[in-house]
C-alpha cells in the first residue's frame, strides 16, 4: 500500500546544540508577546532554529544532522517549550524536568509516517548566555 515497506524501529542518539549567543548563533528570537519581558518564564517568545546535532556533547563532535524548526515558551508558571522539528517531534518540553518525553507525530523522507517518542535530557545550560546542549534519545518507527 502506498509504496511502504516493512516498518522498522530506529534508535537515534545525538546532542542538540541550541546556540543563541556569540558571533554564530543558530537560534533566533523572531516573535514575543506583550508579557514576555515581564513573565518569569518568558511566556510568548518564539525562536526559529537551525541547530547542529552531534554525536557527542562537544561542538567539536561529528555533526550528524540539524534540528530545523521552532520553539516557543508556552507556560506562564514553569519554563516549558512547545517544539516543532523536522522529524516532527511536536510536544511540550518541560525544560526544568530531568527527563522530558515528547511524541513523534510524523516526518518526511525516510521518516514519512514516522511515530514514536523522544526523550530529552539537558546536558549543559548556560543561564548567562542562554546556550544549551541537550541529549536526545529518539525511538522512531518508520518505513
TrEMBL record:
Query: Which family does the record claim for this protein?
Result: Belongs to the plant dirigent protein family.
Native organism: Erythranthe guttata (Yellow monkey flower)
Which controlled-vocabulary keywords does the entry list?
A: Apoplast, Secreted
- Listed PANTHER family: NUCLEOPORIN-RELATED
- Entries under Pfam families matching the protein: Dirigent
Gene Ontology annotations for the cellular component aspect, listed alphabetically = apoplast
Quaternary data: Homodimer.
Q: What does this protein do?
A: Dirigent proteins impart stereoselectivity on the phenoxy radical-coupling reaction, yielding optically active lignans from two molecules of coniferyl alcohol in the biosynthesis of lignans, flavonolignans, and alkaloids and thus plays a central role in plant secondary metabolism.
Subcellular location(s): the record lists: Secreted, Extracellular space, Apoplast
GO biological process, any: phenylpropanoid biosynthetic process
**Protein name as it appears in the record:** Dirigent protein
